[in-house]
């Protein structure tokens, strides 16, 4: 084995082979010479004697090779023993020096452990969500299918079944594709009504995902025929929890939404695609009838096909559908990477957190490096002695690296365990809402990542001081006068650079955190358009078997609302198909006097709320003009500000009429304009919306909303009883206060803002520690100079000022690159901001001012200590 | 190598015996072997060297560069304490063994 040159030098590995060769050859030559002389004495002439000696010796070359081999083994053993001995010695030595300086070593281990813990924790989440392959066979060929309609002002509008059917039959780029939707269903069991999440799937979905059933069969095309036998497949988790993993379950029947379904198979857990799923039911759709946009799609590309090719293929098919099949011309297929699509909105935040925690580790390492450097100055004497008794520069570097490596490994192991532990704490105490396929278990990747950090950090903070402190040659190490007066100059320069570097990084984090806080504050001042306090919401699902038509459903609404209103503590009650932050009912509603649309002109999809008249009061909706709907209104509508602005600009909308193109609905009169509601989240854009009477568009799974004058959660059981009194087969689900919904809608932002803020705080503390440490060190190194200055008449204030200037100077030098860093990253960070610019001069100067302000005491303490030096004492030492 | 295990083993003991009285270089050991055995071993003389190095590796011999009486540089081999011990035990074993064989060979036939 050949080691790289640097390594061989450091570990003093030399090659013994040429030497061994020469020795053996010389030995044999000597033998032959002596033997020849002996034979000549016996009477042979020189030539004969020489020939005879060689003949009697046998195969010289073979003998040489054999001796050499024996020697080589010898050398190798010796070398190994020597290397082990010296490593052992280095380790022993390292531990001895740790024992001598437990505080110093402990500080390093703690800093590293924290840095590595943070990185391990964040990385294991990043790994689980972004890096590890999805748990499907050849997952890199899976893509998300959807329809995009930019002209409707919507990026994703779901897929219609006829479109899907055409894509499936006519494509040349997919191995298979399937669609699904995930409605909730009611299951009747001995324990009462139970709410389940089902996936209604086309039969090809299991094929696209390459899912193999644990038991039984998957769906076939015949299961999709309307009126055929009703079948279902259970997902493993549900099968285990609810049926105890009974292997004889196939052929049994469960009642879903009042209809018996035969269980034909059990699917692995991966069948839960993006939400917790209990069972699969075949999708039954009519491919010839233009349906709604309501399906999600997943496709498996043919081997070697790119997303762009698949996109072009589906576009081609869709253009045909628009021409011949009456498909909407504004909606086109869109193919995206499956993982990217599912994780789109958490990517920037997650990687920002990762970046922040990496910066933190970098600051910790820089601190450790300057600590080690300072310590190496102090240890110069020790190294000088070692050099004097024969240790070379390399062995001193090796000693440094051994010490750093041991510290890094101790810190690394503690940090790794801490990181893994904190992930499990986070997982159990905060609902992370991760996709079901993301398991947070630490795998080899996480272990390898943490180990790699250890090695890199070792090199970073071990090698620089090691090379630095031995660069002048080991002979100068003992020269004490030199060390005390000017020897540390270069070292001080490096340490100052370290501090500036740390300050730059810390400032970068600080500004980011400040921007996030500001974003958060901006969100806090945003008017959501509704009043979330004291409001309780829940859903019910009205099965077709018990509520066959709109009338039956409407009667249920009326009687439930009446009873809810009579509950003590309830001020008002209403029902709606969508409520703030929940749901979206995209419909086309345009002014009836609108000019016919030019081809290609954009039409905004309107979020159509079908509500009961008490809705405005219950949710806290406020009017801008006109009035809200009353019991007397039937063909009346209230539009929101965005809608009014979109269609009528500054004109007064009241008294105008709107129509729903493509339907038989009559003209509806606008009676009021409501203030905009932040329906898609406080940080999301406002879209056109309108409010119509519930009777015009009643749905099977409505929201019920209660405004209370008590703690809304205290009403939960009363509400359940009320519903159960009306219909014991109806389960209530998604019960939540509106305050919770609002908080949850910001939970991811809250999580990464808090994390980055926390990291910035730690970074600030670490950087200030670095400033303090370096200034203290510089002052101690310049003790003599300062003493002389004071002796020569320099005032204490002058000395304090001098040291302070230097310290603040270091910090200022770091601020420049720190601000540069932020400007550089502003593009990437802007995705996290709301109503806040990443290049906000006020925040930049504010954060810099804060940094300088807190850097002041870190500088002042050592500066005052320096000024307090007794000149007589320092001069005596000299 | 030119000999069987028996011969190798024998050669090792003879080498140890050769240096029992004091350090010798390779040629001197070879000459001593030839003289003592009247050349009955009938092996290539070169075999001596791998044997010397092997004994060195096993710690039975130590080797050191030195100078002969005539001032030539040569490698001198000497018994280590372990080598001396081994020589003693091998000697005992060899005598027992040869006596046993001798008893068998000289005993009544059939």
Short description:
The complex is a heterodimer of chains A (878) and B (110). Chain A is α+β, with helices and mostly antiparallel strands and 878 residues long. Chain A has four domains: 5-89, no CATH class; 158-330, no CATH class; 346-525 and 747-877, no CATH class; 542-730, no CATH class.
Give the SSE string of chain B.
HEHHEEH
Cα-atom radius of gyration of chain B: 16 Å
User: Distance N terminus to C terminus of chain B?
Assistant: 38 Å
Overall geometry of chain A: globular
Q: Using the coordinates above, name the CATH class of chain B.
A: Mainly Alpha
Q: For the record, give the distance between the C-alpha atoms at the N and C termini of chain A, rounded to a whole number.
A: 53 Å
Number of domains of chain A: 4
Structural class designation of chain A: alpha+beta
Q: What ranges of chain B have pLDDT less than 50 throughout 5 or more consecutive residues? A: none
Helix count of chain A? Answer: 26
CATH architecture of chain B: Orthogonal Bundle
| pLDDT averaged over residues of chain B | 82
Low-confidence stretches of chain A: 5-19, 480-487
User: Largest sheet of chain A at a glance?
Assistant: 8 strands, mixed
């Amino acid at each position: 084995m050949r080691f790289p040159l640097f390594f061989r030098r450091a570990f003093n590995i030399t090659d013994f082979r040429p030497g061994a060769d020469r020795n053996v050859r010389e030995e044999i030559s000597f033998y032959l010479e002596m033997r020849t002389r002996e034979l000549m004495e016996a009477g042979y002439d020189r030539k004969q004697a020489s020939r005879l000696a060689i003949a009697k010796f046998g195969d010289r070359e073979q003998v040489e090779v054999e001796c050499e081999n024996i020697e080589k083994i010898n050398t190798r053993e010796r070398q190994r023993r020597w290397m082990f001995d010296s490593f052992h010695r280095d380790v022993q030595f390292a531990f001895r020096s740790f024992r001598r300086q437990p505080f110093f070593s402990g500080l390093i281990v703690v800093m590293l452990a924290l840095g590595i813990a943070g990185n391990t924790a964040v990385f294991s989440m990043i790994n689980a969500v972004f890096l590890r392959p999805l748990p499907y066979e050849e997952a890199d060929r899976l893509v998300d299918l959807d329809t995009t309609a930019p002209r409707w002002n919507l990026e994703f509008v779901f897929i219609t079944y006829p479109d899907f059917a055409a894509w499936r039959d006519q494509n040349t780029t997919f191995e298979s594709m399937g669609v699904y939707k995930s409605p909730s269903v009611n299951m009747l069991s001995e324990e009462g009504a139970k709410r389940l999440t089902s996936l209604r799937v086309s039969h090809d979905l299991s094929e696209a995902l390459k899912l193999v059933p644990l038991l039984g069969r998957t769906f076939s095309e015949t299961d999709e025929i309307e009126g055929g036998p009703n079948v279902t497949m259970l997902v493993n988790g549900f099968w285990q929890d609810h049926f105890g993993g009974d292997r004889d379950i196939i052929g049994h029947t469960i009642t879903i939404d009042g209809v018996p379904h035969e269980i034909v198979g059990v699917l692995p857990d991966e069948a839960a695609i993006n939400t917790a799923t209990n069972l699969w039911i075949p999708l039954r759709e009519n491919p010839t009838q233009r349906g709604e946009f309501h399906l999600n799609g997943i496709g498996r590309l043919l081997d070697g096909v790119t997303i762009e090719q698949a996109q072009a293929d589906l576009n081609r098919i869709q253009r045909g559908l628009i021409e011949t099949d009456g498909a909407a011309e504004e909606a086109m297929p869109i193919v995206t990477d499956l993982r990217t699509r599912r994780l789109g909105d958490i990517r920037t935040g997650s990687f920002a957190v990762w970046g922040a925690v990496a910066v933190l580790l970098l600051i910790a390492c820089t601190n450790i490096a300057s600590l080690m450097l300072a310590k190496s100055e102090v240890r110069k004497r020790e190294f000088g002695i070692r050099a004097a008794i024969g240790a070379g520069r390399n062995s001193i570097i090796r000693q440094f690296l051994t010490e750093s490596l041991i510290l890094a490994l101790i810190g690394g192991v503690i940090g790794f365990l801490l990181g893994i532990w904190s992930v499990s704490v986070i997982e159990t105490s905060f609902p992370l809402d991760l996709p079901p396929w993301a398991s947070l278990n630490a795998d080899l990747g996480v272990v390898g990542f943490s180990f790699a950090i250890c090695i890199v950090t070792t090199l970073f903070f071990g090698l620089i001081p090691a090379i630095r402190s031995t660069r002048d040659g080991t002979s100068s190490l003992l020269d004490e006068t030199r060390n005390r007066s000017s020897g540390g100059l270069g070292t001080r320069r490096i340490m100052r650079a370290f501090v500036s570097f740390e300050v730059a990084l810390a400032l970068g984090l600080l500004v980011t955190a400040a921007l996030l806080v500001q974003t958060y504050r901006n969100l806090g001042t945003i008017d959501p358009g509704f009043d979330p306090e004291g409001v309780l919401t829940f859903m019910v699902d009205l099965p077709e078997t018990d509520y066959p038509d709109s009338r039956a459903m409407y009667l249920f609404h009326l009687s439930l609302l009446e009873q809810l209103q009579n509950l003590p503590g309830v001020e008002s009650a209403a029902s709606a198909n969508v409520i703030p932050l929940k749901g979206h009912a995209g419909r086309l509603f345009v002014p009836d006097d609108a000019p016919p649309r030019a081809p290609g002109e954009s039409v905004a999809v309107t979020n159509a709320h079908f509500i009961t008249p008490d809705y405005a009061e219950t949710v806290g909706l406020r009017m801008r003009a006109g009035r809200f709907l009353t019991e007397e209104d039937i063909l009346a509508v209230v539009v929101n500000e965005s809608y009014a602005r979109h269609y009528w600009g500054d004109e007064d909308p009241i008294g105008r009429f709107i129509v729903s193109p493509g339907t038989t609905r009559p003209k509806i009169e606008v009676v009021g304009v409501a203030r905009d509601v932040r329906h898609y989240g406080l940080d999301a854009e406002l879209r056109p919306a309108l409010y119509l009477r519930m009777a015009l568009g009643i749905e099977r799974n409505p929201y019920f909303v209660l405004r209370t004058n008590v703690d809304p959660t205290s009403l939960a059981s009363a509400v359940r009883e009320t519903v159960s009194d009306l219909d014991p087969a109806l389960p209530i689900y998604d019960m939540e206060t509106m305050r919770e919904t609002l908080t949850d809608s910001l939970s991811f932002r809250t999580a990464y803002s808090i994390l980055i803020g926390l990291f910035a705080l730690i970074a600030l503390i670490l950087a200030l520690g670095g400033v303090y440490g370096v200034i203290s060190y510089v002052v101690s190194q310049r003790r003599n100079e300062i003493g002389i200055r004071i002796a020569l008449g320099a005032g204490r204030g002058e000395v304090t000022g001098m040291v302070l200037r230097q310290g603040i100077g270091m910090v200022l030098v770091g601020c420049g690159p720190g601000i540069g860093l932020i400007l550089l990253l502003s593009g990437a960070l802007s995705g996290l901001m709301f109503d806040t610019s990443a290049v906000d001069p006020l925040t930049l100067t504010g954060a810099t001012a804060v940094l300088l302000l807190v850097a002041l005491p870190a500088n002042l303490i050592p500066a005052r200590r320096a000024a307090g030096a007794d000149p007589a004492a320092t001069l005596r030492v000299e | 190598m030119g000999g069987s295990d028996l011969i190798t083993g024998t050669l090792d003991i003879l080498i140890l015996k050769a240096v029992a009285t004091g350090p010798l270089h390779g040629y001197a050991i070879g000459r001593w072997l030839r003289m003592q055995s009247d050349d009955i071993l009938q092996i290539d003389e070169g075999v001596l060297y791998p044997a010397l190095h092997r004994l060195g590796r096993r710690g039975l011999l130590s080797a050191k560069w030195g100078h002969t009486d005539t001032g030539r540089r040569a490698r001198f081999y000497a018994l280590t304490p372990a080598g001396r011990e081994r020589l003693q035990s091998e000697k005992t074993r060899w005598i027992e063994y040869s006596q046993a064989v001798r008893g068998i060979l000289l005993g009544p036939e059939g």
